[in-house]
Specification:
single chain; alpha/beta; 2 domains; six-stranded mixed β-sheet; 42% helix; globular; binds ligand F0G; threonine biosynthesis; amino-acid biosynthesis
Length: 351
């Protein structure tokens, strides 16, 4: 009976918890690091996918949320609040259930994927759809947590970053050292901040001999860091990263510069192409925002920025089932057949 115990138990000595901290966990983390055959062939590199959609609520947010809810519980919080493009709210709602807390979520009206809304609802969160974008939701959430008895569990809460840095630990533990390049989608920029923290901690302690270059990718319509200015009305089909004023902007710049990496943008078309490639050629079904990392790697390769022979990890942040509309859209409709083997065989091209 050996089961992965969740990131707090697995990495307890590297996280801000004590022996008496009441750990709230769904046994998040321990996610697959999957060799990507087609991407490796295309780039001449050794490419791996860190499949974060395999977390309990289907995204990387669970790593940060186990920490945030655990610490909120320790501090006696009865209620938590977050702003979200969908995944944070799904995760907060689930962990709040485990902790016996009330969960309030603020989401941009009409701009979150159906699966994520369903998760927040079924876990019993109190949902407000805000007539504004994610950035407006975050401003509102901060104001409420400042003035009312409710703890903020967005990644501006530093313990969220602590939890999320464990993904880097898992990668180094699995590969035996840090990769040469790490590629991530960037929205509110908490995750790139967290990965960089994890890699630098392991390198400082000699667990890894090096740190990777951090490559981050925003969606073109929501690329404030690339443009160097706030985007007032962000747009992209990748609703998870539809963010115009990232909270961890400065930390993302630090991760980029200290690692010798870069932050670039990918178009919705490039995101969808990578999304389909991952599903149809690697067997990994992710949500559109997650495909931004892979779209970025392919773009960089086409631009000649990827020297062959390197070890590259792309994080794919969320499960494809959260936003199935894009899987169905544009795909051929399945044909209907009678209960007849000959007809079925013929339609399947077997006969
Ligand atoms: N990928 C997915 C699937 C996400 O849900 C997010 C962020 C990101 C990438 C970007 O990560 O914000 O740390 O740079 N989702 C947040 C949310 C904003 O509310 O669920 P980031």
């Amino acid at each position: 009976t050996h089961q992965w115990r969740g990131i707090i138990e697995e990495y307890r000595d590297r996280l801000p918890v004590s022996d008496t901290t009441p750990v709230v966990t769904l046994r998040e983390g321990g996610t697959p690091l999957v060799p990507a055959q087609v991407l490796s062939e295309r780039t001449g590199c050794e490419v791996h996918l860190k499949v974060e959609g395999a977390n309990p609520t289907g995204s990387f947010k669970d790593r940060g949320m186990t920490m945030a809810i655990t610490r909120a519980k320790e501090e006696g919080a009865k209620a938590v609040i977050c702003a979200s493009t969908g995944n944070t709210s799904a995760s907060a709602a689930a962990y709040a259930v485990r902790a016996g807390m009330v969960c309030a979520v603020l989401v941009p009206q009409g701009k979150i994927a159906l699966g994520k809304m369903g998760q927040a609802l079924v876990h019993g969160a109190k949902i407000l759809q805000v007539d504004g974008n994610f950035d407006d939701c975050l401003t509102l959430a901060r104001g409420l947590s400042d003035n009312y008895p409710v703890a903020l569990v967005n990644s501006v809460n530093p313990v969220r970053i602590e939890g999320q840095k464990t993904a880097s630990f898992e990668i180094v533990d699995m590969l035996g050292d840090a990769p040469d390049i790490h590629v991530l989608p960037v929205g509110n920029a908490g995750n790139i901040t967290a990965y960089w923290k994890g890699y630098t901690e392991y390198a400082a302690d000699g667990v890894a001999t090096k740190t990777p270059r951090m490559w981050g990718f925003q969606a073109s319509g929501s690329a404030p860091i690339v443009r160097g200015e706030v985007v007032k009305d962000p747009s992209t089909i990748a609703t998870a990263i539809r963010i115009g004023n990232p909270a961890s902007w400065q930390f993302a710049l630090a991760a980029r510069d200290e690692s010798g990496g870069f932050i670039d943008e990918v178009t919705d078309r490039e995101i969808l192409r990578a999304y389909r490639l991952l599903a149809s050629q690697e067997g990994v079904f992710v949500e559109p925002a997650s495909a931004a990392s892979v779209a970025g790697l392919l773009k960089a390769a086409e631009q000649g920025k990827v020297d062959p022979g390197q070890r590259i990890v792309c994080t794919v942040t969320g499960n494809g089932l959260k936003d199935p509309d894009w899987a169905v859209a544009g795909a051929p409709q399945p044909v209907t057949v009678p209960v007849d083997a000959a007809t079925a065989a013929e339609r399947l091209g077997l006969a």
